[in-house]
């Protein structure tokens, strides 16, 4: 049996760390979240904890009470995943997307490609599988704030723009749209502040069996009239042998993986009822892997600040 371990840490809001909860839109492609994962670093910082730590029995009780073991076994019974091949970002697709010819610039790195047109600039970082496109003629601050289109229109535009970029994913588009707003206070007593929509930001993710796939993500920014302003995208390729789910782990192996992930981590020192857990999917080194995730609040005893903490264990 192939069993590996990968522990990731992310300092972000608890809601931002969630695998679930965004609207889905039909489409034959998808993309990923802004949650930045980094390797866990053992810190000397004093952490306020609720108990001496979780035992294996605590972990097993938590996994069973939340149906995690059953979820792992049922989801592994799915058929093999099928995805369209992604050939990487290219200048031709970018030109078709922005609607203008782009001139390439000379750069020293073989991994970096940059170019510009009359209205847009782009940069491709092949080593990081990232793409940036930004308007050079019309920034958010100077753009007209009217008319203001609906979020549904922005969501539909994202689906269209994904196709125009030639990108396809594993599952359906998972799109979260939010309005960027500014509040202006009035000095007149009794007058309510005015709120103005400045732009729209759309976060797009790839999905597997209806769940978000961590590791692929894109963030589009649109003016209030629905026209494109900026794109930041991280879209790694999936290896040809990266689509088949691995053999189901035994109950004891699942518990061991969860315990090892939490051991030595601040979350492992909390009570089981203080930790949220679930099963998701993550793109790791070109392979789609099923992962257990754990999240909860960590309080710094010195500053009193509370932040989100996410730990994942690869199955």
Structural class: alpha+beta
Beta-strand fraction estimate: 25-35%
Computed over alpha carbons, the radius of gyration is: 22 Å
DSSP E strands, number: 16
Q: pLDDT below 50 for ≥5 consecutive residues: which ranges?
A: 1-51
Span of the ends, CA to CA: 11 Å
Q: Give the SSE string.
A: EEEEEHHHEEEEHEEEEHEEE
Q: Please tell me what the overall shape is.
A: globular
DSSP helix fraction: 10-25%
Residue-averaged pLDDT: 78
Number of domains: 2
Q: Major β-sheet, in short?
A: 14 strands, mixed
Descriptive notes:
It is a single chain. The protein is globular and about 60 Å long. Mean pLDDT is 78; it is low at 1-51. The protein folds into two domains: 8-81 and 244-314, no CATH class; 91-234, TATA-Binding Protein (2-Layer Sandwich), CATH 3.30.310. It has helices spanning 56-65, 68-75, 91-98, 151-164, 251-262, and strands at 8-9, 11-12, 23-25, 38-39, 47-48, 103-105, 112-116, 120-125, 130-135, 173-184, 194-208, 211-222, 228-234, 276-284, 287-300, 306-314. It is built from five helices and 16 strands. Helix 1 (56-65) crosses helix 5 (251-262). Strands 2, 3, 5, 6, 7, 8, 9, 10, 11, 12, 13, 14, 15 and 16 form a 14-stranded mixed beta sheet that branches. Strands 1-4 form a two-stranded antiparallel ribbon. The protein is α+β, with helices and mostly antiparallel strands.
């Amino acid at each position: 049996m192939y069993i590996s371990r990968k522990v990731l840490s992310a300092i972000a809001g608890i809601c931002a760390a969630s695998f679930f909860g965004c609207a889905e839109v039909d489409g034959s492609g998808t993309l990923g979240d802004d949650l930045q994962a980094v390797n866990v670093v053992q810190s000397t910082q004093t952490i306020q904890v609720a108990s001496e730590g979780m035992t294996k029995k605590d972990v097993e009780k938590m996994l069973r009470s939340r149906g995690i073991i059953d979820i792992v076994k049922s989801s592994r019974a799915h058929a093999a995943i099928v995805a369209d091949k992604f050939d990487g970002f290219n200048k031709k697709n970018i030109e078709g997307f922005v609607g203008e010819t782009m001139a390439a610039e000379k750069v020293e790195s073989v991994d970096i490609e940059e170019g510009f047109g009359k209205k847009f600039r782009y940069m491709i970082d092949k080593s990081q599988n990232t793409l940036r496109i930004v308007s050079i003629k019309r920034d958010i601050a100077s753009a007209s704030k009217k008319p203001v289109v609906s979020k549904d229109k922005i969501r539909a535009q994202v689906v269209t723009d994904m196709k125009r970029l030639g990108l396809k994913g594993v599952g359906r588009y998972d799109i979260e749209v939010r309005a960027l707003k500014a509040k202006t206070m009035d000095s007149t007593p009794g007058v309510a502040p005015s709120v103005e929509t400045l732009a729209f930001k759309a976060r797009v993710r790839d999905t597997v069996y209806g769940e978000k796939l961590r590791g692929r993500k894109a963030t589009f920014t649109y003016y209030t009239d629905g026209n494109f302003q900026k794109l930041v995208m991280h879209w790694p390729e999936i290896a040809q042998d990266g689509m088949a789910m691995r053999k189901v782990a035994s109950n004891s192996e699942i518990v061991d993986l969860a315990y090892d992930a939490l051991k030595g981590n601040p979350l492992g020192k909390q009570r089981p009822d203080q930790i949220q857990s679930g099963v998701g999917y993550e793109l790791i080194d070109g392979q789609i892997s099923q992962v257990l995730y754990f999240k909860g609040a960590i309080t710094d005893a010195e500053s009193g600040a509370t932040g989100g903490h996410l730990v994942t264990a690869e199955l």
